[in-house]
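Most newcomers find our protein records easier to grasp once they have seen one. A learned vocabulary of local backbone shapes supplies the integers on the structure line. An example says more than a description, so a record of this kind follows:
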Amino acid sequence: MKVMETEHLILRWLTTDDTAFILELLNDPSWIRFIGDRGVRTLEDARNYIVTGPMEMYSLLGFGLFLTELKDAERTPVGLCGLIKRDGLEDVDLGFGFLGRFHSKGYGSEAAAATLAFGRDQIGLQRIVGITTVDNVASSRLLEKVGMKYEKMILLPNDTEELKLYGVEF
């Protein structure tokens, strides 16, 4: 299901047809470094990730991580961007991750800006946050570019690494 469209991108719900892409994305070096190793090593693992993560969140909340694809003839998938209700965060979180070969092309900020507008206009959220590791300068820049402000350092439950918390209120 298509959720939103931007100048260059389509953001849609993930399906189990996206397992090969999810397997590639979750094993991309930048995903593992900045987001974490999810232990997804097979197509079956990727399918389970989709079903028990994004698809479950769609059914419970009506939103989640969306597959982000180019508006080209092949509908090339480039990453994920969406809204997540994460344990340890009071507010809904803007989440994103893109394959390394699609970094620095503007797709992240285009998808993130559209996702924030979706959260505000379609879901009625009053506030959205974003988190990133201290060393992920590119993600910090992206969050600032879409209007978020750094607020403080936080520690999520069952985690040992402090994260930078950004937020925006509408």
Notes: The domain at 2-169 is CATH 3.40.630.30 (Aminopeptidase). Residues 90 and 129 are 9 Å apart (CA to CA). The chain has five helices and eight strands.
